[in-house]
What we know:
Distance between the termini: 42 Å
Order of helices and strands: EHEHEHEHEEEEHHEHHHHHHEEH
CATH superfamily of the largest domain: Spore Coat Polysaccharide Biosynthesis Protein SpsA, Chain A
CATH topology of the largest domain: Spore Coat Polysaccharide Biosynthesis Protein SpsA, Chain A
Helix content: 40-55%
Number of domains: 2
CATH architecture of the largest domain: Alpha-Beta Complex
Number of strands: 11
CATH class of the largest domain: Alpha Beta
Shape: elongated
Amino acid sequence: xxxxxxxxxxxxxxxxxxxxxxxxxxxxxxxxxxxxxxxxxxxxxxxxxxxxxxxxxxxxxxxxxxxxxxxxxxxxxxxxxxxxxxxxxxxxxxxxxxxxxxxxxxxxxxxxxxxxxxxxxxxxxxxxxxxxxxxxxxxxxxxxxxxxxxxxxxxxxxxxxxxxxxxxxxxxxxxxxxxxxxxxxxxxxxxxxxxxxxxxxxxxxxxxxxxxxxxxxxxxxxxxxxxxxxxxxxxxxxxxxxxxxxxxxxxxxxxxxxxxxxxxxxxxxxxxxxxxxxxxxxxxxxxxxxxxxxxxxxxxxxxxxxxxxxxxxxxxxxxxxxxxxxxxxxxxxxxxxxxxxxxxxxxxxxxxxxxxxxxxxxxxxxxxxxxxxxxxx
Length: 377
């Protein structure tokens, strides 16, 4: 039995699959089973996978009609027999020592899974994924999301090595037929784990595709993508309501305001009217669930945007988004009665009467106190 089973869903990725599989074949942790799941590709992906199967006994190919990423991963899990489980998308690749680093720390600590830094990759260069920078700034062993809050931002399955007995004990399974299938699996797993290892070195190269795939802007302004993300968020909220420790639901919701929904909020200036209305509806439903002040720990420019979302003040919100793109980098600041405020749109505008506290800049110490309070439960 192989130590590690890597599941590789492949759907119409012939331009990238060879490089992906080659990066697996070259892993320094070579006790490996690679389960490639051809998810009904109409290109040469299955043919490329078959070549690896023919020349390397560690590779296996599972074929199925197109059913989506979640179903393909679940099919690969069913065929996997390793002590550890990993996931790799067919258009990405791994650094040579990725599994050596993750396996090494798990064998040392006995943690339930290990997670490592992610770099984005465009075929020529790579760079750290900004949304995970605080999670992976140093290595941590046998930690947990309740002790290291930034783990809650680490919501993807493919930068991890999972102990199979942990995966099976909690009956983890990817939802099928939906987008954002990682979120309702990975976030609960962080809370279900007894301990997690964090590896600061990059273990996954996430490709920025330049072919016919949806652009980042298209994904951010696609109604079904937004609905799917909100549905995944709601699944996690239900899990934390039922099984989470005190405070967990609140700091998850704060991270949603900071990251998940901000990803869509910041694209409203290039979206159509229908999408904008949908976002305001779904975002305000989220804010109602989360309760007052969920945006309070955020920087002032983000607090201002969420304040306008709550008021459904769309024209003013679009003005702030344009300001953020053009003027915000100048770090405009105004001092009022000895306190620093962001000199942002509508400060002091009597028509909107936005509380001055929304614009306060000297809140870093307060945010640290707030995080410490949540972590203490």
